[in-house]
Every structure is written in C-alpha cells, then in structure tokens.
Specification:
By secondary structure, this protein is an alpha/beta fold. The chain has eleven helices and eleven strands. It folds into two domains: about 120 residues, Rhodanese-like domain (Oxidized Rhodanese, domain 1, 3-Layer(aba) Sandwich); about 120 residues, Oxidized Rhodanese, domain 1, CATH 3.40.250. The longest helix has 24 residues. The protein starts with a helix and ends in a 12-residue tail after the last helix.
Length: about 300
C-alpha cells in the first residue's frame, strides 16, 4: 500500500471515529439549553415540545414539533389499568413518523420543566422510545422552563422562539420492540422472588399508606419495597436533574444500590419513569426495569400490599 493510500485510510478511520463520537455525544440522556440553541433546526434532529398546545403556539424552539403526552398514544388504558405502554404500537409509530421522526432521527424531548413531575413527561416518553428500539433520544435538562429563563431587562426571553403550529415532513418510523424492557405484575413478583430490589418512587405518604392514588384499590406499597421519591431526583424538586454525585448520596440514603436488579414503580409509571431514568440513564444501572402498571395494576389485580401505617 502506498503512503498516499495509507494516509487516505488513516483519514477515513479518523473521520469515522469522530463521527461515532459525535453520535454518542448527541444521544446523551440529557442535553443543555446551550446544546439546544447550538443545534436548533439542524437536519436529523427533531425537538418535541410536550407543553400544552396553547403554550407551544405562543412560542417554541424554532423548528420544534408538538406532541400531547396524554392524548397522542404514548400510554393507554387496558383492562381497567390506566397509562400502560400500548399493546399495539402501530398507531404510536404513525404518530412518531408524523412528527418527522424516522429511525435515524435524534429526538430531543422538551417537557414543561416547572417541577420534577413535569419532567416525567420526558422520562416516560424517553423510556417508551427505548422500548420501541430507538436509542437516539435525549431530554432537555430543565425543560422549556430552562430554555425560557434567560430574559432581557423587560422580561422577554432572549432565546429564539417561533410562533404558530409549524409543519413536519412525515417520515416512517419502524418499531424494533424490546419486550425485555417491559414488566407486568407477574414479572415483578418473579424478580422480587429472586432478590431484585423494589423501589417505590412515590411520595412518602403514599409509600407509608397514609394516602393513595384515586384508581388504586388499596393503600401502602409492594411488600419489601424501599422509598426513593421522584422529587429527590431533581434540584429542589424542579426541572433540572441532580448530578451523578448528588444522586449517589441520595440513593445511598434511601438504601438503593446503584447496581443490581431493581424495579421502579409508582402509581401509573409516570413518577417511576423519573426514578428509572435517574437509576438507568444517569447512574448507569442497566439492570433496572420500569413497572408501568405500578400500584394501580398491582392493586386492581388484588395483589398484597404493605402499609407502614395502619389508619383503620
């Protein structure tokens, strides 16, 4: 091989390495406001605004599209249990394609970001994309609240905004389902039997059995579960996720290891997705599963619960 050919080969290899590195960085679980402003309207990136439609119409990141977390098929009721991963993904895949997303698209999810629960819109849809087999997905850390925070002396946002509905060029999104990421009540029982840690991401009062979700049939938690409230995952319960070091301290305080088989649950899989995201995507524990049916399914099916406080 000639020196020229060798040089060309080295150049190609270096270019491929740089491209791979760029892709890995682009698909980080969390992206910053600065990243969003630097990548606005770039080909291959679709930013999905999850706020209410009126807020979206009044002003959104240029080129962003809108999706309704509660109405666009991300979750469905089944057998009396609300907010489950859809049994038939074809309709959801069509919606995703209608947002201009195909299997090569880097999706950036933009929840409202006013509080930690808001961020659950992003984490639950992020998890859904992973189950659908799509890894090129990120969440705007702090959500749209963080994007809109920089303002001029009159209080007007300084980051670029676009008004109106906009229109995406429809694409084809193909589902490559990862069924191993899904867990039902029987799976949770089997995991617990072999020693998996059950992590309740609800508030302490619900975990203790003082209060419960309106659709749950019993108070308390799954026997043996520990409590790690979802609001701990973000700074002061806001929209910005805590650092890995801070999360490690909080996990330790709650008795939750950062490795080993675990199940995150709540009432309907919304708060649990925040706990799952922190454990799996920030702390790096890939042995964590999200139980989307959570306490509503668990109690509707008549499974035993454990109340730390008995008010009867």
């Amino acid at each position: 091989m000639s020196i020229l050919s060798t040089g060309r080969l080295l150049f190609v290899v270096a270019a491929m390495s740089l491209a791979a590195g760029a892709t890995a960085q682009a698909a980080d679980p969390l992206v910053s406001v600065d990243w969003v402003t630097a990548n606005t309207s770039k080909p291959g990136i679709v930013m999905v605004d999850l706020r209410g439609r009126e807020d979206f119409l009044r002003g959104h990141v240029p080129g962003a599209v809108h999706s309704n977390y509660g109405k666009d098929g991300w979750r469905e009721a089944r057998d009396g249990v609300p907010d489950l991963f859809p049994a038939d993904t074809a309709k959801l895949a069509a919606h995703i394609g209608g947002l201009g997303i195909d299997n090569a698209t880097h999706v950036v999810l933009m929840p409202p970001g006013a509080n930690s629960s808001d961020m659950g819109m992003g984490t639950r849809i992020y998890w859904t994309f992973k189950v659908l087999g799509h890894d090129e997905v990120s969440i705007l850390d702090g959500g749209m609240t963080a994007y809109l925070a920089p303002a001029d002396k009159d209080g007007n946002p300084t980051n670029a905004l676009e008004r109106g509905a906009g229109k995406a060029e429809a694409k084809t999104f193909t589902v490559n389902l990862r069924p191993e990421m899904l867990a039902g009540a029987d799976d949770v029982k089997a995991m617990a039997a072999r020693g998996a840690l059950l992590v309740d991401n609800r508030t302490a009062d619900q975990y203790m059995g003082v209060n419960r979700h309106g659709k749950a049939k019993a108070s308390g938690t799954i026997a043996g579960a520990v409590n790690l409230p979802q609001s701990w995952m973000t700074e002061n319960g806001g929209g910005k996720f805590r650092s890995r070091d801070q999360l490690a301290k909080l996990f330790d305080a709650a008795g939750v290891p950062t490795e080993g088989e675990q199940v995150s649950f709540c009432n309907t899989g919304h708060w649990a997705s925040i706990g799952w995201f922190a454990a799996s995507e920030i702390m790096g524990n890939k042995d964590v599963k999200l139980y989307d049916g959570s306490m509503t399914e668990w109690t509707i099916k008549g499974n035993e619960t454990e109340a730390k406080i008995n008010l009867n």
